[in-house]
Every structure is written in structure tokens, then in C-alpha cells.
């Protein structure tokens, strides 16, 4: 029980994919030029680490509907050198810590994730970090305030390496407020002015160019130097129906206004997300502490709700399924045991000893520093099946040895039969355990893609092979003696009673 209380919880161990993805987030309102400068700066800092082979970064979104990334979101793919070229003693965990220390840019919240897993998480939950806090409501100002408060609480939570809340305010927009009266004096209506704004500033498609099988639109608009400032926009020329040339500032008021850089909805409600990265602590413990701290320190206004997502959502779903799978597995094992022995007490004897057989697996996880996950759960289910098999074979040997003692054995016969049957199982048991250990040991110490998951499956089995044989050879025979012990029957010859025929 003690090592079980020391184990953490996670959905699946982080797999070493060979490369890394650096996905920091900046505050909204950043210009394209500043985003390019920060991207180049972080690329140079990452390249200073000797284990990095190449760095390629991207800011903003690609030309695809499946990548709605804002300009302040960076995606930098880091290709690492082969493991044999790393410095002695360097591990993927130490490498991420060194990269995190090397890349310290004010205004950027670092997130280091494996590329494949990150894509799967973002497609499934939309969260790029291990933990995501989704704040939903109807008032954008309240959402922004609550998200900032959750970010501050998350940064103080042990195990959180970085936390960043999306800002619903901070975006900059150029508002063109058309003066109807002034436009009417020049013979212009609202549509005429809007057409000039859309075409001259936003661009108007006049055709397309064909390059092989690709087609690209041809857009015409004013040069950048004429529209890169408010004063330049106000002096943009407009031709009236009467042939007069006026400026856009004559018929419209042009100002810069604040607004949300991007709006998201969750369950038909506006929402904002807080990205929380975890390092050096298990996911379950961090979420437990974060939930407790948010419930205590963050007061939610009416209509505002908080939900937790990311890999933690997978963990909750897996735990919910395991609560059904594990009892169902144990029930099936019990029914199979009863079908084998036709006795409830003998089936209960083997089922009652299974927790003792699993102690070796729990201690092995604790000694290796592994957390409880779906992979370790699979290993424990397999270990329970092997331990039950050990118990079944041992019980069959004991019953066979006892049957050879006759229909009414004494207590001495029972103990001798149990000792004889248990000794017959020592050599087959040793051979079985040796084969299982020889087959699983390379998995536990192996390296490469996927070894993190396979080692979590093999660890409970290897630890259980140290306790399950001892259980079947020592505990089950003792339990069987207690189960079948009877008062010693007298084997003396019956003496005829006087007056009664024998």
C-alpha cells in the first residue's frame, strides 16, 4: 500500500519520437515583423545546444483550413542528432530542460512537445499542452479576467513549468467609420466607399494565373507604403461620380480600435483557453492541485464555467474505462476458476491471493520511478492472469496429491500431501519464471521509439514474477491446508458393541 500511494498518474508515458516541437505563444497584437524577429531569435538560441541538428520555425498559420493558428503562435520543428552523437549522460528529459534554460525570451511561454503526439492532441482536444483549462461564458471581459487569474494560479502550482492564457483583448483593428452626410455631399453612398476600402486596401481579384496544375488569383491594391499607417489611409484618393478627387479621410473617420484577436466557441459558448505545461511531476497530481487552487482562489462570475482538457481528458476517460474493465476481468477469472474446481472456496482462495501477487509489480514501478498509466494497467491485467494460472496449477497438484491419500485423510496426511504436491511444482515454476524474465528483461532495458510504453507494460510483469511464484509456493499451500483442515479421523478398528451384531 505504501508504494502505491507514492505512484503518480498519467495517461501514457511521453514517447521519445526522436524530434521535438517548440510551440511558444506570444501576447496578442504582435506585428509580423516582430514575430519574424522573435522566430529567428529563438531559432538561434535553440541551435546553440550541441544535440540539435537543424531548426525550422513557422509563425502564424499555413494556407489551410485545418491550421487556424494566430500570428503569435510559433511552431518550430527541432531535428536532433543521432543518440550516439549526444554528450555523455544526456537524456531526452535533460535535453528539454537545457533547451528551456537556453530559450528565455520575455513575452514567450515555452512549450516543448513531441510532434506526432502534439498533432494528435490538437486534433482531438485542440489543446497543444498537456493540460488545458477552458473558461467559457458570454461576457468577453469576464472571460479574459478569469483566464488571467487562472494563469496566475497555475504558475504557482508545483510541477507547472509554464502557463499562458489566451487574451480576448489586445487585438488591433483599423475601423473605417463612414460619414454618411459627408459622402452624400460628394454623391457617394456607403457601398461606394466600402468598395474603395475593400479594393484599394484589402485587394480586388481581377484574374488568375495558371502555373501547371496550380491556379493563383491576381489581386490589385495600393502599394504597402501608401496604406501602412493611419495618415496614409486617410490620404488615399477616391474618385467621385462628378470626377472630383478626394481623400478617404474626407468621408470617413479612420481610427485604431481594440478588439479580440480571435474568438473561439465551445459548446456554442465563447471560450478562452489557458495552456499549462507540466515537467518533473505526474499529470494527475498537478491537475489535482490545480483544481483545488482554482476552486479556492478564483471566484467565477455567474454564467462562467471552467473545464479541464488536454491529456488529462484522456486520463479521465481511460480511468473511467478501467473501472469497468478491471472488475469485469476479475469476475471472468473467478468464473473460470469455479468452472475448473467446482468449489467456491477454492476459487475464492486463488482470487484472494491475487493482490499479494501484484505487490512485486507495484514495488517495481516505484523503484523505476514510473507512474500509473494505461500501459501499466495492461501490465497488471496480464500479471493477474499469470498469477491466477500459477495458483490454478499449484492447486491442481495439491488436490492430486491429496486424492492419492485416500477418501478420508488425516491431518498428517493432508500436510504431507500438500508438501509433496508443492515440491513437485518447484522445478516447473522456476522454469516458467526464468522464461518469462528472460523474455521481458530486454524490453525493460531496451531503447528506441516505443520503448517507453513497452517498458511500462513489462515492469509489472517482471516485478510480479518475483512475488507471484513465492505466493503460489508458500501462501497457497498454507491457505489450502487451512481450507481443508479437519479434525483427525480415527483409523482404529471398530470394536463390536455387546449384544449388537457387527
Shape: elongated
What fraction of residues sit in β-strands? 15-25%
Q: What is the C-alpha radius of gyration, as a whole number of Å?
A: 36 Å
Number of strands: 15
Largest sheet: 5 strands, antiparallel
Provide a count of the helices: 17
Helix amount, in percent? Answer: 40-55%
Round the mean pLDDT to the nearest integer and report it. 81
Overview features:
single chain, 502 residues, alpha+beta, five-stranded antiparallel sheet, four-stranded antiparallel sheet, 17 helices, 51% helix, 18% strand, disordered C terminus
Task: Characterize the structure shown.
The protein has 502 residues and is an alpha+beta fold. 51% of the residues lie in helices and 18% in strands. The chain has 17 helices and 15 strands. The strands form five sheets. Strands 5, 6, 13, 14 and 15 form a five-stranded antiparallel β-sheet that branches. Helix 11 packs parallel to helix 14 and helix 14 packs across helix 15. The longest helix has 34 residues. The chain is elongated and about 125 Å long. The C terminus is likely disordered.
Topology at a glance:
Blueprint: H1 2-6, E1 19-22, H2 32-47, E2 52-59, E3 74-80, H3 92-102, E4 112-113, H4 115-124, E5 131-136, H5 140-155, E6 160-165, E7 171-178, H6 180-185, H7 190-202, E8 204-211, E9 214-220, H8 230-234, E10 237-239, E11 245-247, H9 248-251, E12 252-259, E13 264-266, E14 269-278, H10 283-297, E15 305-310, H11 311-341, H12 344-357, H13 359-368, H14 374-403, H15 411-424, H16 426-445, H17 451-484
Antiparallel strand pairs: 1-3, 1-4, 2-3, 5-14, 5-15, 6-14, 7-12, 8-9, 10-11, 13-14
Amino acid at each position: 500500500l505504501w508504494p502505491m500511494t507514492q505512484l503518480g498518474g498519467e495517461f501514457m508515458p511521453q514517447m521519445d519520437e526522436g524530434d521535438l516541437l517548440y510551440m511558444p505563444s506570444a501576447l496578442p497584437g504582435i506585428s509580423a515583423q516582430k514575430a519574424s524577429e522573435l522566430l529567428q531569435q529563438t531559432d538561434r538560441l535553440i541551435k546553440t545546444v550541441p544535440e540539435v541538428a537543424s531548426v525550422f520555425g513557422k509563425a502564424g498559420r499555413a494556407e489551410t483550413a485545418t491550421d487556424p493558428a494566430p500570428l503569435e503562435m510559433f511552431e518550430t520543428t527541432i531535428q536532433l542528432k543521432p543518440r550516439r552523437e549526444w554528450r555523455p549522460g544526456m537524456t531526452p528529459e535533460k535535453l528539454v530542460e537545457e533547451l528551456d534554460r537556453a530559450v528565455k525570451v520575455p513575452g514567450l511561454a515555452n512549450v516543448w512537445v513531441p510532434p506526432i503526439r502534439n498533432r494528435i492532441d490538437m486534433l482531438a482536444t485542440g489543446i497543444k499542452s498537456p493540460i488545458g483549462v477552458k473558461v467559457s461564458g458570454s461576457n468577453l471581459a469576464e472571460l479574459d479576467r478569469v483566464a488571467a487569474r487562472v494563469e496566475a494560479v497555475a504558475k504557482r502550482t508545483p510541477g507547472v513549468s509554464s502557463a499562458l492564457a489566451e487574451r480576448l483583448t489586445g487585438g488591433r483593428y483599423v475601423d473605417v467609420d463612414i460619414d454618411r452626410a459627408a459622402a452624400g455631399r460628394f454623391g457617394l453612398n456607403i457601398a461606394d466607399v466600402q468598395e474603395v476600402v475593400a479594393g484599394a486596401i484589402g485587394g480586388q481579384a481581377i484574374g488568375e494565373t495558371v502555373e501547371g496544375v496550380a491556379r493563383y488569383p491576381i489581386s490589385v491594391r495600393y502599394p504597402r507604403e501608401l496604406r501602412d499607417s493611419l495618415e496614409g489611409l486617410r490620404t488615399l484618393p477616391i474618385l467621385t461620380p462628378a470626377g472630383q478627387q478626394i481623400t478617404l479621410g474626407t468621408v470617413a473617420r479612420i481610427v485604431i480600435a481594440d478588439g479580440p484577436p480571435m474568438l473561439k466557441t465551445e459548446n456554442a459558448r465563447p471560450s478562452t483557453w489557458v495552456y499549462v505545461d507540466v515537467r518533473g511531476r505526474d499529470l494527475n497530481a498537478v491537475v489535482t492541485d490545480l483544481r483545488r487552487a482554482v476552486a479556492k482562489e478564483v471566484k467565477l462570475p455567474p454564467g462562467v464555467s471552467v473545464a479541464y482538457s488536454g491529456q488529462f481528458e484522456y486520463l479521465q476517460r481511460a480511468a473511467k474505462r478501467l473501472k469497468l474493465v478491471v472488475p469485469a476481468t476479475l469476475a471472468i477469472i473467478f468464473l473460470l476458476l469455479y468452472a475448473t474446481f467446482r468449489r467456491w472456496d477454492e476459487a475464492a482462495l486463488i482470487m484472494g491471493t491475487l493482490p499479494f501477487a501484484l505487490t512485486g509489480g507495484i514495488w517495481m514501478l516505484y523503484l523505476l520511478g514510473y507512474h500509473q498509466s494505461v500501459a501499466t494497467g495492461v501490465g497488471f491485467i496480464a500479471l493477474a492472469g499469470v498469477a491466477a494460472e500459477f495458483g490454478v496449477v499449484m492447486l491442481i497438484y495439491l488436490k492430486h496429491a491429496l486424492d492419492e491419500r485416500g477418501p478420508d485423510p488425516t491431518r498428517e496426511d493432508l500436510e504431507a500431501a500438500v508438501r509433496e504436491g508443492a515440491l513437485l511444482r518447484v522445478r516447473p515454476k522456476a522454469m516458467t519464471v526464468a522464461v518469462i524474465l528472460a523474455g521481458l528483461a530486454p524490453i525493460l532495458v531496451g531503447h528506441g521509439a516505443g520503448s517507453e510504453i513497452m517498458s511500462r507494460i513489462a515492469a509489472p510483469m517482471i516485478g510480479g514474477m518475483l512475488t507471484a511464484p513465492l505466493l503460489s509456493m508458500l501462501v497457497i499451500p498454507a491457505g489450502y491446508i487451512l481450507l481443508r483442515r479437519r479434525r483427525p479421523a480415527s483409523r482404529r478398528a471398530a470394536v463390536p458393541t455387546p449384544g449388537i451384531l457387527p
